[in-house]
Amino acid sequence: MSSPLAEKFEYPATLPPESMSSEEKESLRESIKAMLIREDAALVAHYYTDPDIQSLAEETGGCVADSLEMARFGNQHNGSSLIVAGVKFMGETSKILSPEKRILMPTLDATCSLDLSCPIDEFSTFCDQYSDRTVVVYANTSAAVKARADWVVTSGIALDVIDHLEAEGKKVIWAPDRHLGNYIQKQTGADMLLWQGECIVHDEFKSKALAELIIQNPDAAVLVHPESPASVIELADVVGSTTQLITASRELANQQFIVATDMGIVYKMQQYSPDKIFIAAPTGGTGATCRSCAHCPWMRMNSLSLLANAFENTDNEIFIDPVLAERAMIPLQRMLDFSAEQKR
Ligand code: SF4
Predict the structure, then answer these.
(1) Any atom of ligand 1 within 6 Å of the Cβ of 260
(2) Residue 111, SS3 per DSSP
(3) 136 neighbors 149 (Cβ within 8 angstroms)
(4) pLDDT of residue 285
């Protein structure tokens, strides 16, 4: 079943990898490394970006991580600028946490269907109708939506935060991912009103085809991101955030894994476990088509060429109204404090 919001946006076609010889690629990589030193900048990349970009971030002292860790790393880095390879809300989160730094992205056209599905005006009106509820939004939202929220959460901490609110007797508005909200609601029993957004990558995983793949690979552990439909989550051995799935791929003894998230994550999984086999969970079912095919079309916009021009381009810097950023920092800080408290 497609969501009510599924046809509301135009999705970019998934770009093919950039066509260049290995010499050209190496030369581009070297010029990016020189640029990072010259500009006193760090490269922070998301797990779903191209392996070339992830390896560059690692080789240059940057980081490859989930969205929160990217922003945390950027905040602690001594450089004056950050290049955030990911999607726009990640650049915005980095700017909110590090307002004094220059935040550039390979392209600001790289956005996210969850962010797009939750426009601030509609969302704010919705929240106003249920003013007795605590507003919890996922990190995959605009700075304006974060500023309207009481809490910001990532997939890694969402269950714990909702559990905490449930124990306090709070009723919740959850936005924007309906599948993740549904999963958390089932796990915690919390009273949650769900916004009907979705990630086009995870929404496309198909349970029937996945069940067949499991029969064909009975020794494989099934790793599923909770932005996937409930019928797919039901087939999982491990449900978790990107970081939690990477950890599971390292720690489980299985030699084969079926992975239901963006396949960009395999770069890191393979790095930790070079001898293990990672199989993409099916997205289209037999004979069907897919829009993302387990590769986020917006993440794919982060090309080496755009990255190399990050300081020459004029339309790729993140700016946020300081008042809005200050307001958005409140629910973000609440999550960071909660997370720090948990680690004690
Ligand atoms: S993979 Fe999904 S949640 Fe992540 S940026 Fe792409 S559309 Fe958004």
Answers:
(1) no
(2) coil
(3) yes
(4) 63
Measured CA to CA, the distance from residue 217 to residue 202 in angstroms comes to 21
- 167 vs 190, 271, 337, CA distance in Å? 9, 40, 18
DSSP letter for 197, please: B
Q: How far is the centre of ligand 1, averaged over its atoms, from the C-alpha of 198 (Å)?
A: 9
Give the position of tokens 């220059």: 102
Residue 305 structure tokens:
């060429």
At 9 the pLDDT is 65
**What percentage of the chain exceeds 70 in pLDDT?**
94
Dist. CA 225 → ligand 1 center (Å): 11
Q: In the chain, what are the domains?
A: 22-110+299-313 (3.40.50.10800), 114-199+323-343 (3.40.50.10800), 202-280 (3.40.50.10800)
More confident residue, 164 or 5: 164
Whether the pLDDT of residue 294 is over 80: the answer is yes
Neighbouring CB atoms inside 10 A of 21's CB total 8
Surface-to-core class of residue 317, CB atoms within 10 Å of its CB (0-12 exposed, 13-18 middle, 19+ buried): middle
Return the structure tokens found at 281: 């969970």
CA nearest 198: which of 163, 174, 170?
Answer: 174
162-220: pLDDT as tens digits: 999 999 999 999 999 999 999 999 999 999 999 999 999 999 999 999 999 999 999 99
Q: Over the chain, what is the mean pLDDT?
A: 94
201 Cβ inside 6 Å of ligand 1: yes
> Relative to the CA of 261, which ligand 1 atom is closest?
1
In short, whether 298's Cβ falls inside 6 Å of ligand 1 is yes
- According to DSSP, residue 204 is labeled G
